[in-house]
Design goal:
This protein has helices at residues 3-16, 20-32, 44-58, 65-71; strands at 78-79, 82-83. The protein has 85 residues and is mostly helical. It has one domain. A two-stranded antiparallel sheet has the order 1-2. It is flat, with a radius of gyration of 21 Å. It comes from Adhaeribacter rhizoryzae. This is Addiction module protein.
């Protein structure tokens, strides 16, 4: 299937789509498409912070989400309207 055919298929599907969550997700995807590289819009301090975080990950200085929940007594608490085990 060629690119133009895929686009037409997506347009047809989108016109019939009624799921608001999917539509909102697609809007986010559309809005995130930019010709500018977001990295270039960051300040030197922001870039440095990201690079430090990536170095921490590479060197194993991380804590899992589960460990943080245990440490702060959050296991079994509500998140996003649902009870988590």
């Amino acid at each position: 299937m060629g690119l133009e055919a895929i686009k037409l298929e997506l347009i047809e599907w989108l016109t019939k789509l009624e799921d608001e969550d999917t539509i909102e997700y697609l809007k986010v995807v559309k809005d995130s498409q930019s010709e500018n590289d977001w990295w270039e819009d960051l300040t030197p301090e922001q870039k440095s912070g990201i690079e430090r975080g990536l170095k921490d990950i590479d060197e194993g200085r991380v804590t899992s989400h589960e460990e943080i929940k245990k440490r702060f007594g959050l296991l079994g608490t509500q998140f996003y309207g649902r009870t988590r085990p």
